[in-house]
Amino acid sequence: MNRRDFLIGTAASAGALGAGGWGLAAAGEAQQLTIQPASFAFRETPTEGLVSLSPDAPPPVLYGTQGEPMRLRVVNRTEDYTAMHWHGLRIANAMDGVPYLTQMPIAGGESFDYEFTPPDAGTYWYHPHCMTMAQMAHGLTGVMVIREAENPGFDGDQAINLRDFRLDDQGAFLPYYTARGAARGGTHGNVLTANWLQAPVYDHPAGGLVRLRVVNTDTTRIYKLHLSTDQARIIAWDGHPVDLGIPLPSAQEPLLAGPGQRVDFAVRMPADEGQTVDLLAELPGQPARTMARMRAIGADLARDLRELKPLPANPIARPDLAKAEVHDFVFGWTPEGGAPNDGYCGSMGYSFWSINRTPWAGDAAKGSGPLATLERGKSYVLRLRNESPNLHPIHLHGLAFVPVRSNLRKLPALVTDTLLLLKDEVAEIALVADNPGDWAFHCHVIEHQKTGLAGYIRVT
Ligand code: C2O
Ligand code: CU
Ligand code: CU
Asked: Which of 153, 200, 378, 457 is the 20 to 30 Å CA partner of 360?
């Protein structure tokens, strides 16, 4: 692991969002999201068996505004159960979309009305939390943009949803997980996409400042990213604004973004029409791959990165480390196999992973108590120990936390909902338990989540 790896993560057609997007009041009517079977041609032949929110396209970017209510009616037009989770949003527990814990699964033909007011601006995302592996692997992951109450003044906004699909040469789905993968680093896809496309090109104003929102919604892959330009800054991480002095990743020192994580860049587009800025991913044994490309169009707007001001901070309570009670969590393998759960939300039929030496039943948490009970309003330190050789993006619902210290690296000043826990790492994260409810706490490598590495934390 080199120095830059230590830094942050350690280590469709989402069109431009015009400035006019700000200030438009959210309509009072619920937006309907219909989960349904879909097909899409990743290569020449269409792939059947996808799950999306329309018959032939990826799940769209959903937009909301900080502090304004959102109403989303999720309709299930599949034969499986489902539930929708809004990853990173600190909203009421009953709207968090975790089956058995916060709501009952949504059966085929049924719907569920989600209503919440996002307290934080930034880049978030949505995905099912029931039949999680099956539905996510088949496409059901989308970006969610929560706009700042005041327009920060970019000339363009580009969301990139990074994810893999596991397809054969004919474009048909291969089995979406393997026991071998689930017991190790997870099963990787072989068709890498950005907004379901391979190396899509998006036009943005020449010389303009574009906000590039990169979201890793993959079930498995830890992306190693950098840009082809140095005319850029990292402006936010996992939704929350960061100090603009964080150095840019490079080919030698790429940014690690685990499943569930997001990075926002401010990119100054090249001045000359037709020139491009590429988002690149390092893959083992291959030259850097262009995941997506932004192309300059029109007359040079002659913007300057020095015009950038930090985004306004989100209203996150600062934990009091002196008073914080410490809770320990150990993530590792489990000696016992078996123990598939008995819920409607899908089981992979194995237990490979554990939290505090217990393999948890994941989505069907019936009968299993919380991993920890926190008192509302108090500060806590959660000490996370990785006893396995694999990396784990550890995600907590409903609460934002700050990484405090690690035995392996200097952790940057961040507010986040996911920490990519390295091999042999012991990391401490701190938070104020200010949102009551039962909050899922799990690895975001979905094969780990579904085979034991998923519990919950209670805030009373
Ligand atoms: Cu992306 Cu339990 O969440
Ligand atoms: Cu989440
Ligand atoms: Cu994991």
From this structure: 378
Residues measured by CB to lie within 5 Å of ligand 2, the ion: 87, 397
137 lines ligand 1 (CB under 6 A): no
Instruction: Tell me the backbone φ, ψ of residue 451, rounded to 5 degrees.
Output: -125, 35
Four-point Cα dihedral 381, 330, 376, 99, nearest 10: 140
User: Do the Cβ atoms of 93 and 422 come closer than 8 Å?
Assistant: no
Residue from 218, 161, 216 nearest 185 by CA: 218
**Amino acid, res. 255:** L
Closest by Cα among 45, 285, 348 to 170: 45
Determine the distance separating the centroid of ligand 3 and the alpha carbon of 449, expressed in angstroms.
Answer: 7
Mean pLDDT over each residue of the chain, to the nearest integer: 91
pLDDT single digits (tens) 47-60:
999 999 999 999 99
90 lines ligand 1 (CB under 6 A): no
In Å, what is the CA distance from 371 to each residue of 156, 380, 398?
A: 43, 14, 15
Percent of the chain topping pLDDT 70 = 91
Indicate which residue's Cα is closest to atom 3 of ligand 1. Answer: 87
Residue-level pLDDT at 7: 32
Check if 147 has its Cβ closer than 6 Å to any atom of ligand 1.
no
| Mean pLDDT (whole number) for 144-150 | 96
Which residue lies with its CA nearest to atom 1 of ligand 1?
A: 87
Instruction: Name the pTM for this structure.
Output: 0.93
Q: Which ligand is nearest to the CA of 355?
A: 3
pLDDT digits (tens, 9 = 90+) for 287-305: 999 999 999 999 999 999 9
Element (H, E) at 365: none
Rounded to an integer, what distance in angstroms lies between the CA atom of residue 115 and that of residue 128?
16
* Secondary element (H or E) of residue 85: strand 84-87
CB distance 129 to ligand 1 below 6 Å: yes
440 CA to centre of ligand 1 in angstroms: 8
Ligand nearest to C-alpha 181: 3
Confidence class for position 339, pLDDT limits 50, 70, 90: low
Question: What is the Cα–Cα distance from 112 to 56, expressed in whole angstroms?
Answer: 23
Rounded to whole angstroms, the Cα distance separating 84 from 459 reads 21
Of 306, 257, 298, 314, the closest CA to residue 280 belongs to 257
